[in-house]
Design a protein that fits this description.
The chain is of the alpha/beta class. The protein is built from ten helices and eight strands. It has helices at residues 18-26, 52-66, 82-90, 92-111, 129-149, 162-175, 191-197, 209-216, 241-251, 255-270; strands spanning 6-10, 31-35, 71-77, 117-121, 152-156, 182-187, 200-204, 221-223.
Length: 276
Amino acid sequence: MERIITDNHMHLYNHLRLKALKQFRNAGGTHVLLVSLISPYYGVYPKKGDDFRIIFDDHLRLVEQANEIVRAFAVLAVHPAEITILGEKLGYEKSAEIMKEALELAGKYVEEGKAVAIKSGRPHYKVSKEVWKLSNEVMEHAFIVAKEVGCAVQLHTESYSFKGMKEIAKIAKKAGIKLKKVVKHFAPPAVKEFKEIGLFPSVIAGNGNVVSAAEEGDRFLVETDYIDDKTRPGAILGPKTVPRRVKELYELGYGEVAQKICVDNVEKVYGIEIKL
């Protein structure tokens, strides 16, 4: 019997492109959430939120092609690094406004059934107090948009800390979004701590993380964060990684956990049906 194997966070850019999904499929992968990239990757330098339409439409065309290989779902990103990219030319306050407008646009795509989630967050690198404050405001706006349209938010943030995630959970609660709809992308296997905080971890599938997560419980998703950049061909993890790690769970007797992280949790978080 074919098993469902879902990669919760993958990019396709300028290296393998759709061939990456064929590798994923051939390794046993069946479902994937494809996330759009930062604006320069598309040759777009937004001056208003609606300029992200070019990026989102390009990504949706790619997802449509991807669905000929596996079952693919679109996540539309307004990456937190945009505030730095745009801010250097337009000013940080203006950049934050553009990002909020872009998140609202992404929300409309979700309402139209073209995407299943949006992506936001805050910088993973050191920034000024002003940029940090504005980034938190943009992230909060993402939570508000997601609550209004009933979708999940994938988060790109600083490295995991209990304190940092509690702070994000507090912002999410203020916005009124259910915490299970807030997904920490590139998460460590701290399943019990995430359950206490309320956010949903998407565990990066390297370094034995998936088995470590399974030892703590089944409240997580799993991802490669494959970037598909020809200058870094294997970053972050290759497209075969999630299928291999999920198969390992079955081999080690964690079949129920594998089913939960690839099917049940995906359906619960994103409100979508996962089937062969």
